[in-house]
Amino acid sequence: EVQLVQSGGGLVQPGGSLRLSCAASGFTFSNYAFFWVRQAPGKGLEWVSTIDGTGTGTYYADSVKGRFTISRDNSKNTVDLQMNSLRAEDTAIYYCTKERGAFMGLEYWGQGTLVTVSS
Amino acid sequence: DIQMTQSPSSLSASIGDRVTITCRASQDIGYYLAWFQQKPGQAPKSLIYAASSLHTGVPSRFSGSGSGTHFTLTISSLQPEDFATYFCQHYNHHPITFGLGTRLEI
Prior knowledge:
The structure holds 2 protein chains of 2 kinds.
Chain A: E1 3-7, E2 10-12, E3 18-25, E4 34-39, E5 45-51, E6 58-60, E7 68-73, E8 78-83, E9 92-99, E10 106-109, E11 113-117
Parallel strand pairs in A: 2-11
Antiparallel strand pairs in A: 1-3, 3-8, 4-5, 4-9, 5-6, 7-8, 9-10, 9-11
Chain B: E1 4-7, E2 10-12, E3 19-25, E4 33-38, E5 45-49, E6 53-54, E7 62-67, E8 70-75, E9 85-90, E10 97-98, E11 102-105
Parallel strand pairs in B: 2-11
Antiparallel strand pairs in B: 1-3, 3-8, 4-5, 4-9, 5-6, 7-8, 9-10, 9-11
């Protein structure tokens, strides 16, 4: 059974940092790209970042480029999102997601973790 | 960036109705289109990938069609558990973008 279990998140002041983690199980981890998607309160879905199976290919939304860093540890089956210089507009539920396969879109979603940026 | 436009933004329907939601891309995305369902307080659920392929476990009353810039999600006979918000998404290339959602209400 595929499982994506997220940790991290919480309340942080503007300008602060936070690290989200996603622990995966139930499949061959290094074969799949992972994505972070967020949802601000009452809003729609926004793609944040992607990392390919090897960890060498990373992509970021313009809204987080230069502030967020995605990484993965294929020996521990984890994907992390390091978030620096946080702003109020980064307040959202963050979801870790796994692709079905290359060019097959997102399939599994983590439970989500709330990040609140406020003084 | 590719813009994804969903219509309608909200829709009222009854149990047993057939409903169709439309998603238009601002440029050709081939078949790289996905649909998601989200209920309040829950993570999204993946329904369809590659425009028309159902993910494992998705009921056959859901179907997707289209290519290029025009796509549709159809629910053939609405069930009580189908009342939710639906999002389309392109994954043709980065940046990936989502539609704003269609809220399906009773």
